[in-house]
Amino acid sequence: MEIRIGITNSGRELSFESVQTAAEIEKTISDALGSEKTYFTLTDDKGRLYIVPTAGLAYVEIGTEEARRIGFVG
């Protein structure tokens, strides 16, 4: 699952692959935004932990699960 997170006042976005499902990621983010939490955490497919501040969150794009293609597309 590809995740792209935009942070306010930053020209770059945070982009990584995760083994979490789209539903798990959405629940984690919506729970943090709906409560008084100041951050939420996500883990990538290599086990790295990302701590994202809720105050600086501009957008979150959750990609679809898609098998990687090998070779040429006709």
Topology of this structure?
Layout: E1 2-7, E2 13-17, H1 22-34, E3 39-43, E4 49-53, E5 57-62
Antiparallel strand pairs: 1-2, 1-5, 3-4
Based on helices, strands and strand pairing, what is the structural class? alpha+beta
Strand portion:
35-45%
Task: Please give the largest β-sheet.
Answer: 3 strands, antiparallel
Q: Give the % helix.
A: 10-25%
User: How is the largest sheet built, in terms of strand order?
Assistant: 2-1-5
* Approximate shape: globular
Spatial gap, N to C terminus: 25 Å
**SSE ordering:** EEHEEE
Q: What is the average per-residue confidence, as pLDDT, rounded to a whole number? A: 88
Enumerate how many helices there are, as a single number: 1
**Total domain count:** 1
Can you tell me the residue ranges where pLDDT is under 50 for at least 5 consecutive residues? none
Topology, number of strands: 5
Radius of gyration: 14 Å
Pfam family, one: DUF3107
Protein name: ATP-binding protein
Organism: Mycetocola miduiensis
InterPro entries: DUF3107 (IPR021456)
Question: Can you characterise this structure?
Answer:
The chain is α+β, with helices and mostly antiparallel strands. It has one domain. Helix content is 18%, strand content 36%. The protein has 1 helix and 5 strands. A 3-stranded antiparallel β-sheet has the order 2-1-5, with helices on one face. β3 (39-43) and β4 form a beta hairpin. The two termini are 25 Å apart. InterPro entries: DUF3107.
